[in-house]
Amino acid sequence: MEKLQQTLERIAPFDSEVQKQCQEHIDNLTKPPGSLGVLEHIAAKIAGITGEVKPVLPKKTCVLMAGDHGVVAEGVSAFPQEVTPQMVLNFLSGGAAMNVLARHAGAELVVVDVGVAADLPDHPVLRKMKVAYGTANMAKGPAMTRQQAIAAIEAGITVAEGAITGGTGLFGTGEMGIGNTTASTAITAFYCGGNVKAACGRGTGVDDERLRHKIRVIETALEVNRPEPDDAIDVLAKLGGLEIAGMAGVMLAAAANRVPVLVDGFISSAAALIAAKLNPDVTDYMLASHLSEEPGHAAALQLLGLKPFLQMNMRLGEGTGTALAIPMVEAAIKIVHEMASFADAGVSKGEE
Questions:
Q1: pLDDT tens-digit series, residues 273-291
Q2: What pTM value is reported for the model?
Q3: Which of 8, 14, 76, 226 could form a disulfide bond with 48, CB atoms 3.0-4.6 angstroms apart?
């Protein structure tokens, strides 16, 4: 708990004055004001986060948290639990979609076992930080103990701090865990007033009958656990997942160190909700990479006050949206550095 508390205390609002100065610089470049749209917003926000009017191109690290979910025993997923460790091995061998997209973006991929229900082999890419062999079945009681939830958050903080020490200046969050759309739906529905049906999607591709069953299981979990609305750790412990907790830790550590973090899809946004409930200023350091096809994602982003800048009809997770968004972040930063001003280019400005 000490590491978590220290991290929360270090998070402060980003520098709105530097953000304004960056936007003024952008407005003086050879283009009509606002004509680069979201790219301008990205550049100015990263300036406010880093405190640099002209932010440098950062080293990129995508952190993929892996953990299993006891609620899979209720039949909420189209895939069995053993797919989680199988996919982790796929990540380690470089064959998953996230591997391809991270390589394309020039980002380091770090895989963290924070709660896989199996033992995994040693590997240079893998960080072994297992808190438990998966969560308990939240349809029958809390998914985790409070201590486990905090330990998983602190695992994420530790991973992020290590990456920052190694020079990381931009994070992407991702995950792997069969059953984690169920946990994410429970968290999102809870913070949206309990409307499970509106927030629940097909996850790995369940049919209509299993979708109805999934909704009933989540409603049961909410009724059985009754989390305390003002206690984010309680919500996380009762409804969440170890990998969700780990991603929340990465986000908190990034904010505490003034490093921007790209939030992936629905699962990552559930982690972002937990992080934001622990310290609302953390959202200043987040950028929403894309809008997932999962119906609860838009609701989660609205609660966070974030607008996604890609809409690709994706729902894979793993951090794939963040890897696709990284080149857009780099493009925004290059605009700030490489575009000529009206004065430099000898171009007349438009009328005020």
A1: 999 999 999 999 999 999 9
A2: 0.97
A3: 14
